[in-house]
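Journal club prep, notes for RB
We'll compare a predicted complex against what the paper describes. Inputs for the fe (ii) ion case:
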Amino acid sequence: MSVAHIAEPSPLPFDRNSGLSVENGSLSVTKPCGERIILHPLWLRERLPDARVMDTLTGQRLIEAADLPLNLAITSISHDHIVRFSDGFETHLSANWIDNLLSPAPITERVLWDGAQTLPTAYNFTEIATHHTHNALHNPPLRAFLDQMHTHGFAIVRGVPTDKDGALEFATMIGPIRRTNWGGLADVKAIANAYDLTMTPRHLEPHSDNPYREPVPGYILLHCLINDAEGGDSTLVDGYRAAQHLREKDAEAFETLTTTVVQFRYRDATALLENKAPLISLDEKENIIQVRYSNRTELIDRLPPEHLNRYYRARQMLWHLIRPQSSLTLRFKLSPGDLLMMDNYRLYHGRSGYTLSTGSRHMRQCYMDRDTVASKRDILHRIHS
Ligand SMILES: [Fe+2]
């Protein structure tokens, strides 16, 4: 969480001299545009840039906010921005601190794409690694890679060492990987007696990975070691684009998929993993924030027939949008040394089948949590700004 007490120079959203006043025990801030913002006294008090309230080193709160009197009020704000509270506490509010407090965080827009999307520029492993060795906090190519992850939901880096653990050389520059019951970095190749269809030469329909886990793995890092068999193309679909399309074309289907909770289950000799969620998740502002699709592991409860009718129709609508024949499908073939990183909350990924008699296909894969990736991106931007 960013800490508000670190002041940074920027244009003021309010009149330094006359934009602040007390109104019914709250602080009123008037911007030059005339917009008036009311700051609740408790909201202001519990984040004050004062060493008695927030630790100056960690930015973490020192006081027990829940113990503050509920009837706390602001009694005055002086011309030089000394704010006083009804319990006698007073402190100075710098103009820049208030400015930062009211400035919304910059938003990097996501770019929705379809199958006509040109494959974005691949990044160079050696260049990223060289920067990392020099200064792990200053790495423009890794920052650009993570920016592309954010805007497009995937990015490719080339030249990753094709030894068994080569993916870790890249992954650890971002952060720790997520270990699962399958281990850390795991093989994706055809084996005898496969415990998962991934481990066969069969095609894989578009899906999101492991919706039966809690939390669902945030990102997938897929590292290509060998890919010389006939077939084995990678497929990607922008799930946000598909969901948005459904929302615009069939509101009832969209509503059904955002409100019907389905079960995902994985079971083998040593693990039983289950989680429940809708195929499309929205945040409190109804933005699409996560998609799930896992034909192999989805099992819906025995809901009333009318509800199941709605669900099956909506799911089929979604499938028609994301299936390999769909115009939303992006198709390409990874080469040895390529590492494809995917947002597992946004993309559906799959592959075409391949013919073992014509060659081999050996990938290695691991997961990374969302906070790990978001943190690295934030740090790289913070150092640059
Ligand atoms: Fe997968």
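Talking point for the session: The chain has nine helices and 23 strands.
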